[in-house]
Specification:
The structure is a single chain. With 71 residues, the chain is mainly α. 70% of the residues lie in helices and 0% in strands. The protein is built from 4 helices and no strands. Helix 1 packs antiparallel against helix 2, helix 2 runs antiparallel to helix 3 and helix 3 runs antiparallel to helix 4. The longest helix has 17 residues.
Length: 71
């Protein structure tokens, strides 16, 4: 399923669609124990789409993953 989310955002210009699927991809990566990938998706939302609806709460997702990451 993660590959489908990645494909959904590649080449998309609609920020609503991209941020929606980036968030879904991050959540799935997080569920699968892939903190590095999850952070990548979440940070992309924060950096590339700071005015999006998803970006308004993205810091809580980032913090949750950073807390769970092994030192």
């Amino acid at each position: 399923a993660l590959d489908y989310y990645k494909r959904a955002v590649s080449g998309q210009k609609n920020s609503f669609v991209v941020t929606f699927y980036l968030l879904k991809a991050g959540m799935l990566a997080e569920q699968n124990g892939n903190a590095k990938a999850a952070l990548g998706f979440y940070n992309r939302i924060k950096k590339e789409f700071p005015k999006s609806r998803e970006a308004t709460e993205i810091d809580k997702y980032i913090a949750r993953v950073e807390v769970q990451k092994p030192a």
